[in-house]
Design a protein that fits this description.
The chain is an all-alpha fold and 117 residues long. The chain is built from five helices and no strands. The protein folds into two domains: 63 residues; 39 residues. Keywords: Membrane, Transmembrane, Transmembrane helix.
Length: 117
């Protein structure tokens, strides 16, 4: 019994001494986390700074940027040949012009224009 007790105490002492020589992994993780958060805050600051500059430029010029959706043109040249064939095929199958317009995502005027050709 005493031998087991001395053996376990010796083993515990050896592990205790080894713990001083091994690297602490939590400190490495803490350091990496600190560096990561620092770079995040730096990038965040730079983005906010750029946004502020852009906002000031917009205010100075007085021309707010507006995003407009592209307008559809009823030009015959702008309608793709595949869509034209699809419209003609659907018309030959007996579908109504409104249904053709809905399926081909064209306006009724464009469908009528294709069918008039």
């Amino acid at each position: 019994m005493e031998i087991i007790l001395f053996g376990l105490s010796g083993f515990a002492f050896i592990l205790f001494i080894l713990s001083f020589f091994l690297k602490d992994r939590t400190k490495l993780i803490e350091k990496e986390l600190e560096e990561l958060s620092l770079t995040f805050f730096q990038e965040n600051y730079q983005i906010k700074k750029r946004m502020k500059i852009l906002e000031e430029e917009i205010m100075v010029t007085g021309n707010p940027i507006s995003f407009k959706s592209p307008e559809r043109s009823t030009n015959k040249r702008n309608i793709n040949e595949i869509i034209r064939n699809q419209v003609l095929h659907l018309y030959r199958q007996g579908l109504e012009r409104e249904q053709i317009a809905a399926q081909s995502s064209l306006s009724l005027a464009e469908v009528n224009e294709i069918l008039a050709e």
